[in-house]
């Protein structure tokens, strides 16, 4: 009896230790995030001229840091999700790579679109300084809260759309509907449909090309030695142009011809370097799809890293754009946003916050994009990553408003729906009635492999999880109006407190 009682006591102690450990891990991430926000507040207080508005800058820095954490937790999943879902890189490796390249992109080339946050969305510049500060403060806090909610429910949303909704909502609350540049808002709304469709079509088309040139060939190894270097060349050329036009636009703005020449040069370099590498990797490789797909592993990781760099350069403005506008307005004493100054310390808060948010809260959304929408391997993930960059490039050249977040997720949908279409097409007219297998010996499956294939065809299985399609699409549509409504309410609350 004493032994039994002792065992029960030990089990209770072990359970208590396990619960304490799990609780500690659950509280660690919010604790680290809170420390970051406090450091951002202290940093802001020492980075501006001391005066009666210092507390406003400190509060703005806390909100900007909070938004940066949410951008890292939600938005970066679109870049690293396919790489993790295809098992090309581990979760820890993905977090490490993305954190470095996101921070590098934000610090080295970030902030180019900061001036567009309010200038292109609000047609009126007649706000006094205090009103303008409250408009930007409400917009930043509302967008951060909405992205936080989206991350909590596991929905990858566009942080750009959240900021847009925030600025529009607080602008309307401050000066009425006439202050909003509605054609711009209409263009943004159109991107809800345009972006995922373009991304899905591009990814599905690329996957179809790879299937026809490599994976559906009898001699897959020989085909891979020819075509994989070509796809790598396309990747290096596209990303050279992508970084020149999107990722490095703050420090370098080449013209169209320079960008095209840059793409050709890097495409040639990619082909030259990858030729011997592919040949070496394919030596003694089995002539199977699973083995050939591993040749796309390294290009996939490189493309995900470059997407993270470009994302850091572009989307750091979503975290610190309104805050930079607040700092500029307080320093100049005008509610004018034509030329927003971007101090390095403001940019650093955004860069560090994005990387920290990714490391602390990013895994959940990374798994959603990479694993829960559809099954990915290295080839499908490579198609999703490269098509995202191609689609953004083409859309930017044509002046089409698109969301990189929607494109990336739409690309994952695209490869999944293409596989589902091919599976259903192959199933038509080939299913064998179950009863016939027991009545007519000629209808029996010749091999276990044939039996499994017929079973799969008969099932007509869905390769894209529909509930994720519906929930993500709903979150996309709701983002702008929800953040706008929340921002308007926050502005009215601030105005009531200040007034």
Report on the architecture of this protein.
- This protein is mainly alpha-helical.
- It has one domain.
- 79% of the residues lie in helices and 0% in strands.
- It is built from 19 helices and no strands.
- Helix 1 (2-47) packs antiparallel against helix 13 and helix 12 (297-332) packs across helix 15 (378-398).
- The radius of gyration is 26 Å and the shape is globular.
- The relative contact order is 0.18.
List keywords for this structure.
single chain, 499 residues, mainly alpha, 19 helices, 79% helix, globular
Taking the sheet with the most strands, its summary is: none
SS class: mainly alpha
Oligomeric state of the chains present here: single chain
Shape: globular
Mean pLDDT: 82
Number of domains: 1
Task: State Rg.
Answer: 26 Å
Helical stretch count?
19
In percent terms, what proportion of residues is strand?
under 5%
- Give the termini separation: 72 Å
Q: List low-pLDDT spans.
A: 431-442
- Number of E-type strands: 0
């Amino acid at each position: 009896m004493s032994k039994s009682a002792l065992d029960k006591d030990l089990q209770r102690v072990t359970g208590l230790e396990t619960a304490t450990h799990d609780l500690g891990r659950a509280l660690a991430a919010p604790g680290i995030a809170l420390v970051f926000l406090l450091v951002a507040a202290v940093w802001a207080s020492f980075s501006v001229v001391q005066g009666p508005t210092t507390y406003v800058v400190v509060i703005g820095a806390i909100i900007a840091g909070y938004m940066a954490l949410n951008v890292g937790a939600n938005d970066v999943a679109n870049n690293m999700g396919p790489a993790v879902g295809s098992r090309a890189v581990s979760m820890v490796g993905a977090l490490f790579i993305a954190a470095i390249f996101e921070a590098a992109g934000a610090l080295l080339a970030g902030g180019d679109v900061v001036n567009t946050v309010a200038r292109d969305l609000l047609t009126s510049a007649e706000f006094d300084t205090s009103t303008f500060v409250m408009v930007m403060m409400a917009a930043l806090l509302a967008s951060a809260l909405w992205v936080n909610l989206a991350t909590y429910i596991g929905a990858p949303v566009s942080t750009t759309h959240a900021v847009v909704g925030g600025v529009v909502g607080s602008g309307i609350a401050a000066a009425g509907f006439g202050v909003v540049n509605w054609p711009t808002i209409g263009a943004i709304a159109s991107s809800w449909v345009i972006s995922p469709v373009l991304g899905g079509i591009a990814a599905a088309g690329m996957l179809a090309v790879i299937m026809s040139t490599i994976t559906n060939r009898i001699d897959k190894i020989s085909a891979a030695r020819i075509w994989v270097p070509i796809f790598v060349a396309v990747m290096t050329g596209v990303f050279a142009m992508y970084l020149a036009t999107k990722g490095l636009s703050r420090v370098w703005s080449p013209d169209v011809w320079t960008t095209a020449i840059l793409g050709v040069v890097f495409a040639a370099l990619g082909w030259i370097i990858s030729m011997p590498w592919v040949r070496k990797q394919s030596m003694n490789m089995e002539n199977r799809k699973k083995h050939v797909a591993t040749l796309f592993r390294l290009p996939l990781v490189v493309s995900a890293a470059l997407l993270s760099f470009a994302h850091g350069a572009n989307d750091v403005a979503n975290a610190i754009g309104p805050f930079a506008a607040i700092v500029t307005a307080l320093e100049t004493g005008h509610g004018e946003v034509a030329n927003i100054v971007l101090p390095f310390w403001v940019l650093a808060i955004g860069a560090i916050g994005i990387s920290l948010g990714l490391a602390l809260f990013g895994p959940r959304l990374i798994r959603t994009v990479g694993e829960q929408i559809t099954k990915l391997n290295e080839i499908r993930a490579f198609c999703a990553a490269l098509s995202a960059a191609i689609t953004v490039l083409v859309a930017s050249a044509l002046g089409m408003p698109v969301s990189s977040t929607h494109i990336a997720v739409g690309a994952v949908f695209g490869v999944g729906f293409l596989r589902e279409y091919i599976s259903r097409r192959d199933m038509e007219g080939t299913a064998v009635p179950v009863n016939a297998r027991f009545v007519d010996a000629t209808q029996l499956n010749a091999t276990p492999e044939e039996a499994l294939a017929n079973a799969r065809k008969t099932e007509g299985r869905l390769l894209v999880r529909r509930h994720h399609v519906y929930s993500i699409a709903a979150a996309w549509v709701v983002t702008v109006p929800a953040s706008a409504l929340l921002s308007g309410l926050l502005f009215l609350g601030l105005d009531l407190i200040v007034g």
